[in-house]
Amino acid sequence: MAAEFVLEHSPEEHLARCLDRIEREDGRINAFIELNPRASEEVREAPHGRLRGMVVGVKSNINVRGLRATCASRTLENYVSPYDAVVVERLRREGAVVVGMTNMDEFACGSSGETSFFGPTRNPVAEDRIPGGSSSGSAAAVAAGFADAALGSDTGGSIRNPASHCGVVGVKPTYGLVPRHGLIDLAMSLDQIGPITRDVRTAALLLEVIAGRSREASMLNASPEPYSQRLTPDLSGVRVGFAREFEEFTAPEILGVVKRSLRRLEAQGAEVVEVELPSLEKALPTYYLIVFVEFFSATRRYDGRRYGHRIEEVCGAEVLRRILLGSYISQKEYAGRYYRRALQFRSLIRRELLEALEKVDVLAGPTTPKLPHRLGEELSPLEMYAYDLLTVPANLAGIPAGVVPAGRAGGIPVGLQVHAKPLQEQLMLNVMLAAEGRE
Amino acid sequence: MKVRIGFEIHEQLATRTKLFCTSPADYRDAEPNTNVCEICLGMPGAKPMGVNAEAVEGAVAIALMLNCEIVQEPVYILRKHYDYPDLPSGYQRTSMPIGRNGELAGVGIWEVHLEEDPGKYDPVTGKVDYNRSGVPLVEIVTAPDITSPEEARAFMRELVKVLQYSRRVRREGGTMRVDVNVSIEDGARVEIKNINSIRGLYRALKFEITRQKNLRRRGKAVRRETRAYIEEQMITRSMRTKETAEDYRYIPDPDLPPLRITPELVERIRRELPEAPHQKLARFVEQYRISRDDAWAITSEPEMADAFEQVCTQVEPARAAAFFRHIIKKTLNYHNLSFAESGIRVEDIVQVLRAISEGRLSQQAGELVMRRVVEGERAAEVLREMSRVDEQSLVSAVEQAIHQNPGAVEDYRRGKQEAINYLVGQVMRITKGRADAARALELLRERLS
What we know:
The structure holds 2 protein chains of 2 kinds. Chain A has helices at residues 11-29, 39-45, 86-93, 136-143, 160-166, 200-210, 227-230, 244-249, 252-267, 280-298, 311-314, 317-329, 336-359, 381-386, 392-397, 425-436, and strands at residues 32-35, 55-59, 97-102, 149-154, 169-172, 192-197, 239-243, 271-275, 362-366, 401-409, 412-420. By secondary structure, chain A is α/β, with parallel strands linked by helices. In chain A, strands 1-3-2-4-6-5-10-11-9-7-8 form an 11-stranded mixed sheet, sandwiched between helices. Chain B has helices at 53-65, 149-166, 198-217, 263-271, 277-288, 292-298, 302-311, 317-335, 339-342, 346-357, 363-374, 379-386, 391-404, 406-413, 419-430, 437-448; strands at residues 3-12, 69-70, 77-81, 91-95, 99-104, 107-116, 120-122, 127-129, 136-142, 177-184, 190-195, 225-230, 235-241, 251-252. In chain B, strands 2-5-6-9-1-10-11-12-13 form a 9-stranded mixed sheet. A 3-stranded antiparallel sheet of chain B has the order 4-3-14, with no helix packed on it. Chain B is elongated. The relative contact order of chain B is 0.09. The interface between A and B is large, with 42 and 29 residues.
């Protein structure tokens, strides 16, 4: 199998078609905050690498030199990146072209794509619904055919949630596999950059390009692997775990789609085994306490002196809520009671997941507990946070998790989520390929 | 009344690069805000590289020289949050202790750890220069074992000497910053910030102890507070009280895995540790048979001690020692320079000492030569100039050369220009090389025209 991106047309022609589609449809979808004015020039000069001609959207919290990394916030509305994120350098080196900066929840604080300062994004597959978030524009751009792929970031499901809602593939790699240098922080100990694509093969190819060691401190000492060349849907001897607790928290129409998908895995030779994750319900509060504290710390640089605005004066309600809560619980007198306790629970959840993954090769289940709500529908913060129940464990444990379209419920896409052990992206992608039902 | 004084001393480490990126750590010749990258500017999305290994080794070496135990457990890097223009990311990274429970000159050393320097903010112009941002600092925290400004001054001099001997800190000067804690008779502890010289330290303590004693005499309590030392007025002024004290909201930096200092690394650094000042002093007395006073003066600075040892390979140690202690020290004091800053080279000292021992130069003239060396000249040139024949002797040498070489004079008069060079050579021969050749040429041309 060739480990290269294949185009039907010339790269110039292909880019022109994408731009044409964006021009016709993005006024409605709102997947992009800014387009790259140099894209046509760059595609002509692009090196003949593995991604030659691939049109990529980049989430607005990833630095692309010369474009604005706004994080979809007024706070950074005028911040033009002076440098390329490491992942963007790696994409360019292989011939991909950045078509534009995609929309997102403000500072990645959200699971619906509605909190952007630049307006909400529509779900291209079900236009009255939210696309999910926070990588809303990245998933929508890929689903709508505006781009071949997009980069997203995933702190507690921000790649996988919108991938599931928009019917595309999304991968959150092992923590420390993909360099974060250039990714604007939500919560540093949880954030990972990953690909969003229309098929598993392209996701595998993109991942092998952006993965692997770099000079930043929090990286694993891991080499990139040729995932796309080693992809196989043959799951003979693979044990797939399904947690009893998934059922407890998930809407029945989603469970129906997920179970049909598990049967497809069995048809490819996998054995589905029931496992237990008794601490699953503790994952959400643990996750949010960590996010609040780390996000508070990360936003101290937006003090109004260098980037134009003081964040607290211009940000939206959700961002402000997280900053204030983070400031509150990281006070000297509370630090032990909340943050340190959260870190202890995090260890517990990590241990439990890794133990479950000792008994099986992968865990497979739903991505979100419920289907995406209608655009504009009012949700309380806790209802919004509940979307993340099944996606945060992978971030807390630092393990890889990917989402692949599994079918639809009432016309709305549902994604199957696959977790694997640290650095077992290959096996995870193989299971996703089998579920995808192609090749 | 019993006074207790403790210090927090910050000094820049002389590493090649900054603590978390590859921007140079030496920013002294750079235009403002040019010695920076996205990492030390804390730009959105920038991530630290691993902690600079050279800085870690420097902190370990200094901790060992201060007789600390090196911690075995993982050393977390914390974020200390505060809001100030010089801090580009809104937090300063500071490590947990690397060394603990040390001792120097009878004063306990509580801990030694690493920190990053912030940028430099000028409140008058409102401008910030981030060239310094991210430069590694070592912070040394002492026990409150010091009981007077005089003791504080003596301890500080000793500490500065040990830091210089470690060869791990910047030698350009002016980078040391000291925070001082003072309390009287178990009263509230007052912290004084903004001290950057030993003289400032002494004056700040003098003022602060008097202030606290006066409060007590009037029956008033000393408040727990942070005060700033105002250099120009030699006073301290209140900055903030305990009630308004900042909460730094320390968290372990999620971008940085904790440091692990292995016993192997500690052993290697221990083996390569430079001689401490007191060790060098003892060795000099023993090896060179010089007095303790001479040795103490010479070892006041590691660079001077090195130069002394090199001079001793060519000159008798006793004479060298006297020259160092009396002439060189005096010259440096006069110019208010350290040996390292002075530009004095070993060859300068050797040449002056030789000239003195050969009777070509008096002791006093030797001191004058050293003064000119410190002002930027080389001893060899100065000595040559000083030993030149005076004008009258030169004139007679020129006349002698003309008289003794009629052939060359004839050749020159017939237009053979080179002939005059021969005559200059003869003048040099007659004066044993002590003539100014240019002046001799001038005189010859005058006479022969």
